[in-house]
Design goal:
Elements (H helix, E strand, L loop, with lengths): L2 H18 L1 H44 L7 H32 L8 H14 L1 H15 L8 E6 L6 E8 L3 E5 L5 E5 L3 E6 L5 E10 L4 H17 L1 H4 L7 E8 L3 E10 L4 H19 L25 H11 L1
Antiparallel strand pairs: 1-2, 1-5, 2-3, 3-4, 6-8, 7-8
């Protein structure tokens, strides 16, 4: 028998002896069981994530294939609930896997009661904020305060200015939102003091129009009513507003100007776009009518004064400087 054959026989005997020993038998029984538990847990977690992402993509596809300009409230809520359910399911799955591994290792659970109580008391003081975040997130989802795609302004404890942006993800612990500058904001749910949903069911565009105090308000009102009618004739605006814009009247009176307010009910989250378009229409109408703000001093033809009938005698004086500037 050669040296190589002797080495092979001795190696095989030692290897077979290893599997017949205590460590080898433990690996063949408990070790394989624990490995299978870990692999099954990871595969199940990936499957849960895949299902949640598939549901989210299906909701997005339904929205993109439809003729809706904004997401429905039910779609927002379903997407938020799918995210929360997937997160909770993965957490429960890992707890179950940890319990099974503990059982496979034959660790006596009774002996861990006392240390667990001490550890739980210590963690209880340090994890109060986490528990607060989880409870707040639970009520945010169940009360449908906001969901995926909502435009919100959140007042956060310890921060003076509210955090504004579009919600991109809601879990039991945090809310992730994208600001207008493209920044991703992650806010713990327990730190949210007040929630302002700017895209819940419907929104309102508010346009304040300053006009000179000497202007004829009746003519300005007629002018703004014409703007409201033309807004409903605009195909782009008609799809965004729920009803015709309304002129509320005088909102405030200042030294040189009178502020008139126009409002319009819009689709959720479209109030800013509608406000911008209406301001363009108002500015164009005021420019055509020759109405100018006092700050322009008559130097800019965006607003020349509409002469009040009581001051008709000074019509030439009011219009003269504007014509000279032209």
């Amino acid at each position: 028998m050669t040296i190589n054959s002797l080495l092979a026989v001795s190696t095989s005997e030692r290897w077979s002896g290893f599997w017949q020993g205590d460590i080898g038998r433990w690996i063949l029984t408990n070790g394989i069981h624990i490995a299978l538990l870990l692999i099954a847990g990871l595969l199940a977690a990936r499957f849960i994530n895949w299902v949640a992402q598939r549901i989210s993509r299906r909701i997005d596809a339904e929205y993109q294939e439809s003729d809706q300009l904004v997401r429905s409230e039910s779609a927002k809520h379903r997407q938020a609930v799918a995210s929360v359910i997937s997160w909770v399911s993965i957490a429960i799955l890992f707890v179950v896997v940890a319990v099974e591994i503990t059982d496979a290792l034959a660790i006596p659970v009774g002996s861990l009661v006392a240390p667990a109580a001490v550890l739980g008391a210590a963690l209880g003081f340090g994890a109060q904020r986490i528990v607060q975040d989880l409870l707040a997130g639970f009520f945010i989802i169940t009360e449908k305060q906001y969901g995926f795609g909502d435009l919100v302004a959140l007042t956060v404890a310890g921060i003076a200015m509210p955090a504004e942006g579009t919600v991109e993800d809601v879990t039991l612990r945090v809310t992730k939102m994208r600001s207008a500058e493209g920044e991703m904001l992650t806010i713990p749910n327990g730190q949210i003091v007040k929630t302002v949903n700017l895209s819940k069911d419907w929104a309102r565009a508010v346009i304040d129009v300053p006009v000179p105090a000497a202007a004829d308000l009746n003519k300005v009102n007629d002018l703004l009513h014409e703007v409201a009618q033309k807004a409903m004739e605009d195909e782009g605006l008609r799809q965004l507003v729920l009803d015709a814009p309304q002129l509320m009247g005088v909102e405030s009176i200042e030294l040189d100007t009178v502020n008139l307010r126009m409002v319009a009910r819009t689709l959720p989250g479209k109030q800013f776009e509608v406000g911008r378009r209406l301001r363009v229409l108002v500015i164009a109408a005021l420019r055509r009518a020759g109405v100018v703000t006092p700050g322009d001093g008559g130097a800019t033809p965006t607003v020349g004064a509409i002469v009040h009938p009581a001051t008709a005698g000074g019509a030439e004086e009011s219009q003269g400087p504007v014509e000279q500037k032209k």
